[in-house]
Amino acid sequence: MVVAVYDDVAECYDASRGGEQRGDDFAKELDARLPSGEGTVLEVGVGTGVIALGLVRRGRTVLGIDVAEAMLARAQDRLGPVLIRGDGRQLPFADGSISNAVSVWVVHAVIPPEALFAEVARVLEPGGRYLVCPTNRVTSDDPIEPICEAMFERAHRLHPTWRRNPVTVTDLLAWGTEAGFVGQVETFQSGRWETTAEELRTSIRDRVWPALQGLGDAEFREVTMPAIEATRSLPPGPISRHAQVDIAVLSLPVHLP
Question: Are the CB atoms for 128 and 181 separated by under 8 Å?
Fold first, then answer.
């Protein structure tokens, strides 16, 4: 898992990604797809805890794990002592000890991803469910997405290891099947969130995306200056954004004797 890059952006992570309101929107959709009951929900890659918080507010018992210490510190403020620093590829839980699990915007940072799915399958009880969301598919009319994508491509050309091809829900299903899950794809429309051109410029300057963190000063200017300039053409005031979100709904079969 990537550690340092997320520790470096922990302070601004929520502001650049929708904060508690967006986390609650995701939690609502995940909760509706989790089996009812009092079992523990493990969030692998809990981050700053905004999604886990939404699940707790809906009556779920949540346990969170993440490798990034600074992200966990922010989650601690929201969730209290239900967090563990650890690697999703080596979960510190006994076989069949967890009822259900979720991961949102995490798998793209795990190498190899197959190890994560195998570990979650190991710790889930028979019949348990694992809900996994890749990064969002922002709508085609979004004015900010082309600016960011072009910036990320410039970063990728300088440091190819900093960006893999986007993980798709098809990838998630394949890795889940390999680990023994049975899966299907569901989608939902995210709630709208707002930003401004100035907030986007601040996010770029603060290097809130991991792809910008491995760049030297000269490289950073080469990658980001065209994006900063492109933001000048964005409309003034709040810019409303939304996205379509995929969920791989993975279930662990119940093996009868």
Answer: no
According to the model, what pLDDT value does residue 257 have?
Answer: 45
The domain 4-138+164-192+242-251 is placed in CATH, from the list 3.90.25.10, 3.40.50.150, 1.10.238.20, 3.30.360.10, at: 3.40.50.150
CA distance 231 to 198: 8
Q: In terms of Cα–Cα distance, which of 127, 62, 122, 66 is closest to 94?
A: 122
Name which residue leads in pLDDT, 32 or 108: 32
pTM of the model: 0.81
Token pair belonging to 21:
């309101």
Count the residues in the chain: 257
pLDDT beyond 60 at 143: yes
Q: Which two tokens stand for residue 158?
A: 């300088």
Joined tokens for residue 48:
């700053």
Query: What are the phi and psi torsion angles at 238 (to 5°)?
Result: -65, 140
